[in-house]
Amino acid sequence: MSVFLTSLISRVFQRYPPGADVFIDFGPNTLILGAGLLGRKRGIFVLVADAITKDNSAMNTLIPSAASQEITRSRRIGFVIYPDCDIVDVCGPFDAFHYADYFLARFGRNNEPGYKCDILAATPGPVRTSCGIELVATHSFCDLRDGLDTLVVVGGMAAEQASKDSSLVEWVGSTAPKVRRVASVCNGAFILAAAGLLHHRRVTTHWLFSELLATEYPSIQVDSNLLFARDGNIYTSGGITAGIDLALALVEEDLGREVALATARIMVVFPRRPGGQSQFSAYMQMSDVRSRPDITELQAWILGHPAEDLSVSALADRMAMSPRNFARLFHSETGDTPAQFAERARTDAARCKLEQTVVPVEIIAGECGFGNAERMRRTFQRLFEVSPHDYRARFRSTLLN
Is residue 380 domain-shared with residue 333, that is, in the same domain? Predict the structure, then answer.
């Protein structure tokens, strides 16, 4: 072994702790120190061995050549904003990409492209968000012709109005084919829909706007329960903080589980949040009945008496109708079957008790017409993708703590 190599190995062992894998790049050849055993490791011949107790590639330390230290490209992400957009739609995912970039370097993966985020608006400069805080746009979206890897269109209470801005919608539509992927946060999906990017795709949006999106764009398959959805290279997220869930999924897709998990931990969020959006949705509201006030009265009675017999036959007797005619009339007037409405009435009653009381789940199940706790658990799991116990842990009043 040459004097140079011997000296180099000595310096490396002094610098790095015992048990750490150290890679030294000599152009076409790579030397691993501290690999544990002589021979091949990950397809590379090991020249020097040292004791190692655990093979953990996440802790490898890379000593790159001078040329490989320079990142020749980055994943450039453009966030499209507009007046009265939601600030969390921007800052939540923005922070996720920032921390992912930080951990990419922290893990010694300096030869991989990280993230560079830009804020785009109609004109560069401050843009007032819905909460009053101003964000500074770095570029005008009209001046940005190419160079983006990912386009993110944010949402907010003004998203529907923004979807009628022809210059914005046309730019989004013309830019989409030039980028690797397009994403929307919250009801920013309305802008993607107006640009013609969501036809015949499965998407999600804020639960509050899902019905409106499905109504205005019938060709779109809207699933309001999803926290985020991917259809081809089009990504959509649910409401507001669900943009963070989407960003973490994009990070994992780009950089792997290691970086995504570290990012989630430092942001103190779930790497994959349990349950869907439906657990956050508002309580059921009675839809407008077309011509039968007696159906409206029956709905109100059902909401107030969830523990009663709410079968079709029992409700039909209450309306002095045959079960078949009653079921057909109820559905035509409300859009729900009697069973669907009754189930939602019971789950809403149970949600209210779980949030506002310390009554045991078994008793709540009986009081709300489920019969037993297991049946209530299965219903919650199917509708909200969480158990009643988990729902209570997340949504109970802080006054009960």
Answer: yes
